[in-house]
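[PROTEIN RECORD]
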Amino acid sequence: MAHREPPPPGTTNATAWLFLSPWIATFALFGLYPFAFSLWASFTDYSPVRAGGSRFVGLENYGRALVDPAFWSALGNTAVFVVGTIPFTTALALGLAVAVQPAFRGRTLFRVGFFMPSVVSVVVLSLIFKGLYATDGAINGLLAALGLPQPAWLNDPRTALPAIMVMDVWAASGYYMIILLAGLEAIPRELYDAARIEGASAWACFTRITLPLLRPTLLFVLVVNTVRSLQIFAEVFVMTRGGPLRSTNTVVYYLYEQAFYRFDLGYASAVAYLLFVVTLGLAFVQMRTLRTTPEAAR
């Protein structure tokens, strides 16, 4: 067998960087540059339609946001959305994962059926539910047939945000079901067999085995769902445009209005970074609260 000479020093690294260069260039252009530019813009009064260029204003944009009632109203609506959807989405996803994990006839069909809404575009789902929530839509038609009141779902400040929340829980549960199902499949079956031999009930197995060992997966689901919920935008944009009476105006939609309706990109960038700080803080709290492993708990 002929002896193969090793490549010259540095050749392997140069080849690796050569193959990585398209991704690095793309990430720098569409990731790092927008991040750096928006951070710079948050300290200026930058507006693409204002003559004379931008002016450095320091923390003025951040202070303006913190005293703006509209910003706090949008943050409050976002908080209501997060608190009102995450527990239900997580519980429903966990229930579905437990239900479709055992082997039974048609299990694959149920798994695919529950997961399908998360594959469909959010804009498409929002348009479908906008029709369902219409005054003469299917939901009010069913309520009328049952002799019940028919709310103006998306035109009433009391029901507009809850209606969007219900749609979000329904649409997102299937995605998190798949993640939790993967976590369930990773739990050794021998633990359940041993527990049943000792006389443990199904509820005891769930609370003493499933939930503790599923903690890392639940943490991932909670953090990802929190980040996604804090950035709720497409549903609001399609279904209500922040109305009625700003009852569905979220932080990202408020940011969108400031940036692309009023062209106040400096202020909009500051709002984005305030949301980033809130998101980072919540994720940190969740990780510190739930990251304890079962071994550490014992």
